[in-house]
Specification:
heterodimer, A: 151 residues, alpha/beta, globular, B: 153 residues, 4-stranded mixed sheet
């Protein structure tokens, strides 16, 4: 395979990956770019493009891989998507497709407009657009936090 | 937010001890810390950002009931990480192991042309690290695996 792959990608566990592919496309605008199916017709592996990022939509293929739907909605990892498009329009589309919103679109102190939504199986997603690039000093002052560039 | 957010997709990982996790990710995988935001009053909120190549990673604490480290869930992961390296995945594996990663699948060349290993970090997040070592066509991959592939390019 000669996919140009980003250096970091995400694998996401779903009970029903086929339903997830369709839902993520309709709600969030992701694009299916690879589907690998077993002899039984089940999805062995699939991938979607998210801008210049790549997600692997997988299933609960061993005891360590679980959908939030199997864990009472708990997430061990979530995904943040940085968009260069109208965040409010993206939000409206996601909500219309059935996304459960946990944060309405709002400007953040760190210079982004952001909303948050759960997908069909309870994975947590945040979508934002950069409004104003801030230095760490400006961010600290605006948010009442300590921002620095090292541990 | 400078160029750390130039990439569309940023995974955010939950840890009980996010600072220790960031130190591990620097040693094991070569991530670079680019931002740490802490509550000045010593509160539980924490936001870390790290970078590898052109990709970013966010590190957070167990700040709500909906956010848990695999350590709090008997090792279960709702999402996992995949790293693509350009050179010597075997040396990458040795470095990760020396830093304390639990390597549960040793480096092995897969039917799709990538050489991969799998490991758990100290809190149980699962990482797969891959290096493309051979260009495989869709027909070759289908013949080797018995799977049906759509979208191979």
């Amino acid at each position: 395979m000669e996919h140009l792959r980003p250096s970091v990608m995400v694998g996401i566990c779903y009970r029903d990956p086929r339903a997830a592919l369709a839902w993520l496309e309709a709600a969030f605008g992701f694009e299916t770019c690879l589907v690998i199916e077993g002899p039984d017709g089940g999805i062995a592996h699939s991938e979607m493009k998210v801008g210049d990022g790549l997600i692997m939509v997988g299933h609960e293929w061993d005891e360590h891989h679980r959908s939030p739907a199997a864990l009472g909605g708990v997430n061990t990892q979530s995904a943040h998507v940085n968009l260069d498009e109208d965040i409010d329009a993206h939000f409206a589309r996601a909500r219309a497709a059935g996304a459960k919103i946990f944060r309405e679109p709002e400007d953040q102190f760190y210079g982004e407009r952001l909303y948050g939504a759960y997908d069909l199986e309870g994975h947590q997603w945040t979508f934002s657009r950069l409004i104003k690039a801030l230095s760490l000093e400006e961010m600290s002052a605006a948010g009442g936090v300590l921002a620095r560039d090292h541990l | 937010m400078s160029d750390t957010d130039s990439q569309t997709l940023t995974p955010a990982l939950i840890y009980r001890d996010p600072k220790a996790a960031m130190a591990f990710l620097e040693r094991a995988f070569g991530f670079e810390t680019v931002m740490v935001i802490e509550d000045p009053d010593g509160g539980p909120s924490f936001h870390g950002e790290m970078r590898l190549g052109g990709s970013s990673l966010r590190i957070g604490a167990e700040w709500s009931a909906g956010h848990a480290s695999p350590l709090s869930l008997n090792g279960k992961n709702t999402q996992t990480l995949a790293i693509q390296v350009e050179t010597d995945v075997d040396a990458h594996c040795a470095q990760a192991r020396a830093a304390g990663a639990d390597v549960f699948a040793e480096p092995e060349t897969q039917f799709y042309g990538d050489r991969t290993y799998r490991c758990r970090d100290p809190e149980g997040h699962i990482w797969v690290v891959a290096q493309t070592v051979e260009v495989v066509t869709r027909e070759q991959a289908e013949a080797a695996s018995g799977l049906m592939i759509t979208g191979w390019s």
